[in-house]
């Protein structure tokens, strides 16, 4: 791991892996150093705003091979597996479209980090059979609620936006509501399950 200064009161921790970042994030959340103002997890990094010295001291002696024990919040989303790329996903995986839905719903996912758009969670735990590249040419508009896959991640588009993930279905769940508390349905560390509906 390597620390990089970001302005006067923040530092970016470059991690060796997504799992190490998740462990570092969970460790800091569990300890809750008073001086920490914000934590922003990424795929291989953790931005610490405020309390950098306290976080460095905390992580120097921590086991970052796995997150601290705790009971994560669990969210279940109903999904219609009727996405524009469902046949492409099935063909590239060498399975039927029904098998794609079955593989996707059997896994339990973890919100590793959020980004791209408010409420968009990058979910890990995608079965190896479904790990596929992004589309060669991104769409200019992906409908809100679209469930997609890209690389090792699956996720749900919280609002209509451009995007290059392969779409396997959609949900009617609200992923982001600025008037709700909290506004985002997903937070790092949450567990997510998908349930197929007709």
Automatic annotation (TrEMBL):
InterPro entries: CT_C_D (IPR003833), Cyclophilin-like_dom_sf (IPR029000), PxpB (IPR010016). It is an enzyme of class 3 (hydrolase). SUPFAM superfamilies: Cyclophilin-like. Keywords: ATP-binding, Hydrolase, Nucleotide-binding. Pfam families: CT_C_D. Its EC number is 3.5.1.54. SMART domains: AHS1 (SM00796). GO terms for molecular function: allophanate hydrolase activity; ATP binding. It comes from the Bacteria. Residues 1-186 form the Carboxyltransferase domain. Signal peptide: none annotated. This is Allophanate hydrolase 2 subunit 1 (EC). It comes from Amycolatopsis camponoti.
């Amino acid at each position: 791991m390597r620390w990089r200064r970001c302005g006067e009161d923040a530092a970016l921790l470059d991690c060796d892996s997504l799992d190490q970042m998740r462990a570092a994030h969970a460790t800091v959340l569990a300890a809750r150093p008073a001086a920490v103002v914000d934590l922003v997890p990424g795929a291989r990094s953790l931005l610490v705003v405020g309390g950098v010295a306290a976080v460095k001291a905390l992580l120097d002696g921590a086991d970052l091979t796995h997150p601290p024990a705790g009971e994560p919040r669990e969210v279940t989303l109903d999904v219609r597996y009727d996405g524009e790329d469902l046949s492409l996903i099935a063909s590239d995986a060498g399975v039927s479209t029904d098998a794609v839905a079955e593989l996707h719903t059997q896994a339990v996912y973890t919100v590793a980090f959020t980004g791209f758009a408010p409420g968009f969670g990058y979910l890990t735990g995608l079965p190896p059979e479904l790990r596929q590249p992004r589309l060669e040419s991104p769409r200019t508009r992906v409908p809100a609620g679209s469930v997609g896959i890209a690389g090792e991640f699956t996720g749900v588009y919280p609002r209509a936006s451009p995007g290059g993930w392969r779409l396997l279905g959609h949900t009617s769940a609200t992923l982001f509501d600025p008037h709700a508390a909290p506004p985002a349905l997903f937070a790092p560390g949450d567990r997510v399950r998908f349930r197929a509906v007709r």
